[in-house]
Write a structure and sequence with these properties.
single chain, alpha+beta, Thrombin, subunit H, Pdz3 Domain, seven-stranded antiparallel beta sheet, 8 helices, about 35% strand
Amino acid sequence: MADERRHRQRTTRWSGAAALATAVAGAACAPGAPPPAAQAQVREAPVAPADLRPDELAMVELFERTSPSVVYLTSLARRVDWFGRTTAEVPQGTGTGFIWDEAGHVITNFHVIGGADSVQVVLHDQMSYEADFVGASPSHDLAVLRIAAPSGALRPVEIGDSEGLRVGQSVYAIGNPFGLSATLTTGIVSALGRRIEGVDGTPIENVIQTDAAINRGNSGGPLLNSAGRVIGVNTQIASPSGASHGVGFAVPVSTVLRVVPELIETGEYVPPQLGIEINYNLNRNLLRRAGTSGVLVVDVTPGSGAAEAGLRGIEVEGNRLRRLGDVIQRIDGERIASPGEMRAVLDRYRVGDEVTVTILRDGAEREVVVRLS
């Protein structure tokens, strides 16, 4: 199956996302409606006490400035009473999101809204809006909604930079853990360059690890730097019990900036492609027999960058394999051991970029330059 077809990201309607949504392990948001007492409440911010330390005052100001950009999400599922012949929408889970722009786009995790028939978005002023689904990338656990709120009620976040992060710098998470709205937790960047699985099992690379408390309901909320700018989207926790143990993960904003504009424009995100066909069973069985690893080129898409570079696929005569196709070993010097790793590496690039692909052909390595499409 062609990598362009096999790995093409598909958008989903509310009712079609349940299977993928439940696949994410250790997600920071799980089904379950919040207790009535936990519903969001807004109070006018009091004047900060004069005896606050400078670091305390900075944290207070950060929260008061950024929390209006964070929203409370409730995913609703339609239930049918066959005896009374009535239908009703009941809460199936809660989570967090944040205002992306003045057009009313809201960013959250895909697993927060997966399987929902509708989603309610509550802003900081307590006004509630039913969201329209715009698009999603399960591979990055990102989704975009849109609400028809007046521009004056929308407070878009400020976007930061995740490329220059350093382990040890302070970070702040705002979300709705356990249905408790507008909750601030603090911590540091614990590690960088982590890899976690997206909802569909595809690796998400360069993930930020933090010890800021992230619990159920924090999913989809922003991870902020000390300037109050978004550097990531809180996505998962590593916890056998499901409670925060000081190991949380956030999709970096560099990934968000690459994926979200495409979701807004087209409703889906399609990663760059080499232009080859792959087959997972053949990849596993034939390469095991050949005593190597990598990605086996089964066929080459005509007119693609792979075709221009001269890559070749397998050759079969009847039921007999006459020639093994090229085996991709590295892309721009990075080792590729499986189709999933290839997909994760290509996701860093853009359509039109050129990459150096190291292939194994007839027992010898060679390099070719492939234009991504």
